Amino acid sequence: MLALVKEKIGPGFAVKEVEIPKFKPNEVLIKVDSVGICGSDIPIFNGTRQVPIPFIPGHEFSGTIVETGSRITKFKSGDKVVPSVVQNCLTCTFCREGLEILCDELVETGIHINGAFAEYIAVPEHTLHELPENMSFTEGATIDPIASAYHPVKKANVGTEDIITIFGPGAIGLFALQVAKAEGAKKVIVVGTRESRLSKARELGADITINISEKGENAAKKIKEFTKGKMSDVIIEAAGKASVMEMCLSSLKKNGRLILAGIFHENCSIPLTSIVRNEFTIRGSICYSYNDFEDCIDLVSSDRVKIKPIITHELSLKEAKKALKLINSKEAVKVILHP
What we know:
Elements: E1 2-5, E2 14-17, E3 27-36, H1 42-46, E4 60-68, E5 80-81, E6 86-87, H2 93-96, E7 107-108, E8 120-124, H3 137-140, H4 143-155, E9 163-167, H5 171-182, E10 187-192, H6 195-203, E11 208-211, H7 219-226, E12 232-237, H8 245-250, E13 252-260, H9 272-278, E14 281-284, H10 290-301, E15 311-316, H11 320-328, E16 334-338
Parallel strand pairs: 9-10, 9-12, 10-11, 12-13, 13-14, 15-16
Antiparallel strand pairs: 1-2, 3-4, 3-8, 3-16, 4-5, 6-7
């Protein structure tokens, strides 16, 4: 089969022929139709995130089951599915509490073991979700990032009187905007550095956008004006940038909730006294649960979360290098590859 392979430590990859993976009794073999490029894939491609070598990345995908292991009971060949990235043990305390991503034996498809930038992939049955008839494979490949945006919004316990601010209008931020609206948030503000992304945020329902780079706007000042001094009830940090953390805290109302959904690749210094004096609640959010994933399939199939404005490019697996150039140049928001 054709696959995108990290063959050595450091930057770069090859698109080459490799063996079709063998599958275990509790696994299915899937013919991959669509696979998205995630922000967490970029450090793998660049060689700054360690993975086993050789390695096939890719975890946002959908496809059709072509073969099943002897212990498969709920799915069959021909079923259209969208698997989650989380391969958990099912038996530890965290798994039993519905906190699969905190599993003591966690393994993530395309992060710790070979993923879906390939024509075929083998995954355990308990990671599978049925793809609804009214959803395309391309839409299915977006459920993973949507669920990663849904999880922090749910953690924030968004109410109908809440004003939400999202820092970072990338794919996760734009999906979080839509989820917050679907959850009934009173107003949603989006803060970013590029007008092209902020324009998409407005298209998807942002009440106001704030450009802190091209226009040099002061986020806290603008939020104070918009909220008539109240500030944000909830802030979702989806940029993973240490430079915006003080901005987040200064934009949050007293007793407000800050949810960290971005992955930080640098150390961050924040004023702890401000957190104490204002009784801020700060929570981390990583990935999602099985039920989150199911909820997000419903959000897309019912058209409450739209993906077409966010998927800017669809290319073949052989065009992976072109896809990365589009991402690195900020021309693309979300790229879907088709093996």
